[in-house]
Amino acid sequence: MAASEEASRPFAGLSDVSISEDIPVEGDISVPVGPSRRDDEFSTLDEPVKDTIMRDLRAVGNKFIHVLYPKRSSALLRDWDLWGPLLLCVTLALLLQGGAADHEDQGGPQFAEVFVIVWFGSIIITLNSKLLGGTISFFQSLCVLGYCIMPLTVAMVVCRIVLLVSSGGIIFAVRLVVVMASFGWSTFASTAFLADSQPPNRKALVVYPVFLFYFVIAWMVLTYSP
Amino acid sequence: DSTPRRAAAAAGKMSSGSGSRNTEPWGSFDDNLIQGGGSAVIDMENMDDTSGSSFEDMGEMHQRMKEEEEVAAEAAATEDDVADDGEFLGMKGLKGQLGRQVADEVWQAGKRQASKAFNLYANIDILRPYFDVEPVQVRNRLIESLIPVRMINFPQKIAGELYGPLMLVFTLVAILLHGMKTSGTVIREGTLMGTAIGTCFGYWLGVSAFIYFLAYLVNAQITMLQMLSLLGYGLFGPCIVLLVTYNIHFHFLFYGLWLLLGGLSTLRMVAALLSRTVGQTPRLLLCGTMALLHMLFLLYLHFNYHTIVEGLLDSLEGHNMAPMQRVARDVPEVTLNATARNPGMLLSTH
């Protein structure tokens, strides 16, 4: 009886608790947060603008190197940014657009289409990995997927240069090889970064949409004709 | 001695509530570390409390507490206003108060909307059970989607899962995009991407809803989730057929695959629906609609993106040479030959 009454009013018993005067009844009840953030250590207010920009550019460049040489590190995950993905996406879309803008028909891939595929696709992949129980945050995943488009953008540049020279059967074979290689590279790099955050038995389920995503982009790059 | 412990648990609950705010989607890596620190407190709390609280409960509780606080504060504020304005400012104050109240309400409504949209991200957990599969299960279900089961006296088991269907729909979108590009389809007032996504998702969601509605009318034992899963896995056959026939342009190959793979996946769905329906007329209605829609959809997807063949035929018959030269650039040899050899059959199919 007493127990049930106590349960219904959980804090009723507190009034009966007597605390002697000399014990302080105050304290910090927040969770201990560890050492303070790095941002506190140096102030960015009074540094030259050039330093700020250079630091950000260096961070972006650093991530590009990480994509080119994918080893299982969390550097790409720790400080995510969307500058690199934006840059790559716009570059790819402009390169794919270049030829199609002159034509009357709408057969070529349009700027908006590339843009939508890249961002919508990465969002779908990210949601999928979250739903499958991944432990990666939303923008970290977007960052990784965006940076890993880089091999395909490079392949697009190569294709444009090769197509400037001439077009024929051998040239198509060269483009095929380049695009397939960069497709494999993209998939491998993004898997290397994303795989650790997934439950081990479900990696195949997470990799499939990533594969599909880069496959569609690679196919667009391959079928580009000026 | 249980009261101090309970107080400590409550304190832990509160602090973990404020800690859970750090797990925002754009939380950096550091924030995740903080969350790790917070979870220790929650574990302790779990030992103490038998309510079996989890993160969601924490979030909810925190949310409710905050809302209650807000309501209380609001009530207090309005009381103060009434007292002040009524005594000192008279009519003018009443107007100002009214304006402020309206503005307040608008602001509150906007805030509620925004927080609801934001909470949608937290509510992703609601969908998680539907994505709880192993790769082996997905593979088995894909294979089973092409094997009709003849048992129709006892309700067949239909897995309620959305990973496979969703991925199949996206695969179909990609294949359709490929088909549109290679056939040189031009869509006015829209993009190829939007059309492909609209077609695939429209078919999946629309037909599922329609068949579910029919099933509801004829009292069939099937849920919306099962319907989505059944139809989604039923798209595996069409995916294969379209992938092959968009690249190899033989009409007989298409008809063969259409009847074989499309037919098998349709039969599988029809058998599952049959086993869950009672009576002759309901069965005929439900399964006839299902089979008709599914087979026609595949036919539509194939032939809608072969419009190029028709254009080619026109240009061969007429004297309009310019379109043919423009079109013929992308057409493989095979299509040209097949078109030239039997134009009559093509005409009849369009």
Automatic annotation (TrEMBL), chain A:
Location of region: Disordered: 23-43
Keyword Transmembrane annotated: yes
Subcellular compartments: Golgi apparatus membrane; Membrane
Biological processes, Gene Ontology terms: endoplasmic reticulum to Golgi vesicle-mediated transport
InterPro entries linked: Yip1/4-like, Yip1_dom
Domain of life: Eukaryota
Keywords: Membrane, Transmembrane, Transmembrane helix
Pfam families for the chain: Yip1
Topology of this chain in the membrane: Multi-pass membrane protein
Ranges that cross the membrane: 80-99, 111-132, 144-163, 169-193, 205-224
Primary residence: Golgi
One GO cellular component term: Golgi membrane
Domain Yip1: 67-220
Family: Belongs to the YIP1 family.
Protein name per the record: Protein YIPF
TrEMBL record, chain B:
Keyword annotations of the record: Cell membrane, Cytoplasm, Differentiation, Glycoprotein, Golgi apparatus, Membrane, Transmembrane, Transmembrane helix
Membrane topology of the entry: Multi-pass membrane protein
Transmembrane segments: 162-180, 192-215, 227-246, 252-271, 283-303
Subcellular locations according to the entry: Cell membrane; Cytoplasm; Golgi apparatus, cis-Golgi network membrane
Record's compositionally biased regions (Low complexity): 1-21
Annotated GO biological process: cell differentiation
Region (Disordered): 1-56
Domain of life: Eukaryota
Assigned GO CC terms: Golgi apparatus; plasma membrane
PANTHER family, per the entry: NATURAL KILLER CELL-SPECIFIC ANTIGEN KLIP1, PROTEIN YIPF3
UniProt family annotation: Belongs to the YIP1 family.
Role played: Involved in the maintenance of the Golgi structure. May play a role in hematopoiesis.
Protein name (Swiss-Prot/TrEMBL): Protein YIPF3
Source organism phylogeny: Eukaryota, Metazoa, Chordata, Craniata, Vertebrata
